[in-house]
Amino acid sequence: RREPLALINFKKKNEETGEEELASRLDHCKAKATRHIFLIRHSQYHLDGRADKDRTLTPLGREQAELTGRRLASLGLKFDQIIHSSMTRATETTEIISKHLPGVKKISTDLLREGAPIEPDPPVSHWKPEAVQYYEDGARIEAAFRNFIHRADAKQEEDSYEIFVCHANVIRYIVCRALQFPPEGWLRLSLNNGSITHLVIRPNGRVALRMLGDTGFMPPDKITRT
């Protein structure tokens, strides 16, 4: 729904000629800027927590978030916003990262919460959620993709740099959808805690993956994939 032709109301006519000025109207609807999307997986957390509020970051997880924050700050980019999952581990990761990016606004959303996006192909034996979970989580995660991963608005003049702090399943699914790969293959990708994935969305809608799950900025003994 962001193709220029889809944004034009063909019922509107030029008052003088009675003909549609299609070329100029198309140009007015075309995106001009590039969006840079940085998808950050949350840091290591306490797996034994019974409820979400108990699944806080481990001491190592807090170190990982500090390293990720420093890495993002070192890029020298003017980040527009940090949108994060409302789950505890993502919120805590965001708070630590944001200390290294002062002034960047933070927005919490339930759309980016962890879940089961779509039944993986090939299937795996160690992870088999109830079928209903795919219907509940899948619709929400697909909504997150459609809401956040798109070309820039036609009114956007300058390139933007946005950070999304969420979860491995969400990021893997988004990457497959953004690159137009079969989404059922999402579980074939693997992401470390605190890793950085960088998507670029051009004005014409083309998407490129510049970085997938990068943790090269972390010492080897700090890298985990829990």
UniProtKB/TrEMBL annotation:
Family matches, as Pfam families: His_Phos_1
Matches recorded under SUPFAM superfamilies: Phosphoglycerate mutase-like
Keyword Transferase annotated: no
Location within or outside the cell: Mitochondrion outer membrane
Molecular function GO labels: protein serine/threonine phosphatase activity
Keyword ATP-binding assigned: no
Protein name per UniProt: Serine/threonine-protein phosphatase PGAM5, mitochondrial
Species whose genome carries this gene: Nesospiza acunhae
Taxonomic lineage: Eukaryota, Metazoa, Chordata, Craniata, Vertebrata
Gene: Pgam5
